[in-house]
Amino acid sequence: MFKNATFIKSITDLKDDPGEYPQVLMIGRSNVGKSSFINALAGRKSLARVSNTPGKTITLNFYLIENMFYLVDAPGYGYARRSKSAQDDFIIMIERYLTRSKYMRLVCLLIDFKVGPTEDDLFTFQFLKNLKVPLMVVATKKDKVQKTHQLKRTNELKRVFSETNFVAYSSVTKENLDLIEQTIRNQVMTLG
Ligand SMILES: Nc1nc2c(ncn2[C@@H]2O[C@H](COP(=O)(O)OP(=O)(O)OP(=O)(O)O)[C@@H](O)[C@H]2O)c(=O)[nH]1
Ligand SMILES: [Mg+2]
């Protein structure tokens, strides 16, 4: 678990990127558990807002961890109520962010352990692979799958995301949280 997590700011324009420290971006479908994941990593109940209804504006929320790096919470993609053009805007903004930022060290793509990967997830996975950013796929809500089916499901997902760092996780049981924390720490220490 990380110490000293502080919300720094929300930005809607990349010119307001705080820069200065390495950054780790959380990306994933709406409701997949990005904010819960950030809260678990930070050991806080409500640092990141859980289940906020996505609006029209695309905001990136910056949380400074241990005065050393940022966890960045992105809005969920594939949200039905958001228009196609807003979804395109989202992809364009993320692409710009990932290709221009000197500080990006890791992208965590969150997918749902039970229902994922959706078509949107696979599109985003391919998009991130093409950008060649360091990537970790985190399958959330593992607790929602019966224990007896978890291994089979894990192996299925590992096959889909082969050659990519893949971790099954749950914000309820906190399974593999330490492993994920270590991966983030290692990536943050790498030079950009
Ligand atoms: N059972 C279970 N529920 C979870 C888990 N992670 C998140 N949730 C629940 O899923 C819902 C959505 O979680 P959020 O963390 O708000 O998801 P998000 O990806 O930040 O959603 P957006 O910000 O809307 O894109 C909430 O009701 C959480 O309590 C998990 O690992 N297991
Ligand atoms: Mg959220």
Characterize the largest beta sheet: strand count, sense, and whether it forms a barrel. 7 strands, mixed
Largest beta sheet: strand ordering: 1-3-4-2-5-6-7
Find the CATH topology: Rossmann fold
Write down the secondary-structure element order.
EEHEEHEHEHEH
Name the CATH superfamily classification: P-loop containing nucleotide triphosphate hydrolases
Tally of separate helices: 5
Account of the protein in words:
The structure is a single chain. The chain has 192 residues and is an alpha/beta fold. The protein has one domain (5-189): P-loop containing nucleotide triphosphate hydrolases (Rossmann fold). Helices cover 34% and strands 22% of the residues. It has helices at 34-42, 84-100, 119-131, 147-160, 177-189; strands spanning 5-11, 23-28, 60-65, 69-73, 104-112, 135-140, 165-168. It has a seven-stranded mixed beta sheet with strand order 1-3-4-2-5-6-7, with helices on both faces. The longest helix has 17 residues, at 84-100. It is globular, with a radius of gyration of 16 Å. The relative contact order is 0.18. Guanosine-5'-triphosphate binds at residues 28, 30-36, 50-52, 54, 75-76, 140-141, 143-144, 170-172.
